[in-house]
Amino acid sequence: MYTTVTFQHKNGNSIIINEVPIYNEDNVKNYEISVYLQLLMDRIDADVYPNKQYSFIDFLDGLPYHTVTGS
């Protein structure tokens, strides 16, 4: 199962991260996901002009994870 996470960038923009997995009965995997999610959020927060949407799965796979460019 996947979900979408939204957080506020330090510049005030809403940031959307798509394709974040959720494990119903495995809290260890959920914790691991939360660690990687925090790494992605920290990387996005460091961007001065962040994109508005990102793909968590592409981030984990080392692919370009910017799915929609910001205006």
Descriptive keywords:
71 residues, alpha+beta, 4-stranded mixed β-sheet, 2 helices, globular
Low-confidence stretches: none
Give the strand tally. Answer: 4
Main sheet attributes: strand count, strand direction, barrel closure: 4 strands, mixed
Structural class: alpha+beta
Kindly report the average pLDDT value.
Answer: 81
Range of helix content: 25-40%
Total number of distinct structural domains: 1
| CA-atom Rg in angstroms | 12 Å
Task: State the shape.
Answer: globular
Q: Beta fraction of the residues?
A: 25-35%
What is the spatial order of strands in the main beta sheet?
1-2-3-4
Q: Compute the separation of the termini in Å.
A: 30 Å
Total helical segments: 2
Order of helices and strands: EEHEHE
